[in-house]
């Protein structure tokens, strides 16, 4: 997507094939800075520590992690070890394992001498596929926005949670793809952006993206969504997802479930934008079986921000000694999901409908 005069992606392969550069998302919205990752362990660290985050992006990044490994040691044992390392970086988003498995399955049948070049090309293909998939999600999701716009005057009011924007993918984003397309086509739209505590991906990343694209938006505290829905100020909720079960349970950033409950109580449609790479074809019961990442308590007890003098500081917001817990994702049961926006069209969050879509 464009930021000012620049066409940016959150990951860019170096032309020499010896590293990738990624936007360090910890620095946004205050600084736009790239970091160079030149090995599988460096990619693992960047995913684990959330320099890069968002399900599709960590999949693409891990694919390049395998490619970097194939460059330094393409042997079976080294590739398997790198795959294990990368898969262990974060547990919840299924795209990570999906991308690593796909790379390893394509490389192992090749002669070791052919693997480095093939791996770099495959990682690039996987990244470009993500761009095409998200553009298709945008095309299908746009129809929902157009239908609302046709019913009444004024901007279509969308609420989103976390960051499922272009920063979380290779381009376009998933939940944001229909929003960017609508904006490009002149459909009036306004986005309520949940701040998304504890890491504030909404306030720091989604708001930055939307602002750079000129999309009207308003950041709200996570607790405001229910109130806005009760007062008819939200037409539609669109969120991303990290893993969806075969029966349509949607795992996404913590707090998503509460938005789905409020949406159901107020008759507001609740959609998840789901590339098929985020569907876990081995898992049926999302509530019982999706592993939920527990992150450091410090993300809850502390908040970082910019002072008036421009300095980035971190401050403590709880009393000394208070315990804090930090489950990073929750699961919205399929019954609360109005539909899944996929690259093949919009499908009901229902086992039979998903099976039919897969064909
Ligand atoms: O912990 P994060 O920031 O990686 O969580 C990201 C989300 O929950 C996104 O909504 C999800 O990955 C979809 S990104 C298109």
CATH superfamily of the largest domain: Translation initiation factor eif-2b, domain 2
Give start-end ranges of low-pLDDT stretches.
Answer: none
Give the N-to-C terminal Cα separation. 33 Å
CATH class of the largest domain: Alpha Beta
Any idea what the radius of gyration is?
Answer: 20 Å
- How does the helix and strand content classify structurally? alpha/beta
Number of helices: 12
State the major sheet.
Answer: 7 strands, mixed
CATH architecture annotation name of the largest domain:
3-Layer(aba) Sandwich
Helix percent reads: 40-55%
Indicate the CATH topology of the largest domain.
Rossmann fold
Count of the domains: 2
Instruction: Quote the beta fraction.
Output: 15-25%
What ions, cofactors and ligands are bound? 5-S-methyl-1-O-phosphono-5-thio-D-ribulose
Mean pLDDT: 97
Principal-axis shape:
globular
Order of strands side by side in the largest beta sheet? 8-7-6-9-12-16-17
What is the number of E strands?
A: 17
Order of helices and strands: EEEEEHHHHHEHEHEHEEEHEHHEEEEEH
Explain this structure.
This protein has 359 residues and is α/β, with parallel strands linked by helices. It has 2 domains: 2-129, translation initiation factor eif-2b, domain 1 (Four Helix Bundle (Hemerythrin (Met), subunit A)), CATH 1.20.120.420; 138-358, 3-Layer(aba) Sandwich (Rossmann fold). The chain has helices spanning 40-48, 55-72, 76-87, 94-107, 112-151, 177-184, 201-213, 225-230, 256-265, 286-289, 298-301, 351-358, and strands at residues 2-3, 6-7, 11-13, 20-23, 34-37, 156-160, 189-194, 217-220, 236-239, 243-244, 250-253, 270-273, 302-306, 312-316, 329-332, 339-342, 345-347. Helix 2 (55-72) runs parallel beside helix 4. It starts with a strand and ends with a helix. Residues 53-56, 93, 162, 164, 168-169, 173-174, 201, 240-242, 252-253, 328 line the site of 5-S-methyl-1-O-phosphono-5-thio-D-ribulose (MRU).
